[in-house]
Amino acid sequence: MKKSVSLLLFLFFILFHSQVSGQVFKLEELAGFNKLDMDAFKTEIKKLKYTFYDRTESPKFVLYEYESPDYTYKIGKFVYTEEASQNHIEFQFKDRKEYDAYVKAVLTAGYKQTEKGKIITGENYMDYFKGKSQIRIVQPETAQDAYAILVFK
What we know:
Elements (H helix, E strand, L loop, with lengths): L1 H19 L6 H9 L2 H10 L3 E7 L3 E7 L6 E7 L7 E6 L2 H13 L3 E7 L5 E7 L2 E6 L8 E6 L1
């Protein structure tokens, strides 16, 4: 009886922690967010208890960023004014294990690595394509910086 009570308590705390902490998104969810217009994106992300973090606006794009309840993750939606094909979702996380899991998920989903390089700020990236779909995974320059996965239309 004690073992089953201990097991139930353990499962409860795991489930409770997963509800309170931030949410990791599947590739399909990130792609789905990218298909939404900005108002629908804001509504969906707020349902997941992410809070507004920042808004950046330039002549070329508008970016809305949201942060997870535990401040572990950030998600942003870029909407470009001139070139809609550049619209994308950017999801930031800090854990190397999550990075490895995303790379594995990208490859398992049939994406092929096509290019490596550095972005303007110096971080390394890898591009993956599957048909017309593109995913870019950016590695941080230092351990304090975040990994990022960018999902384009």
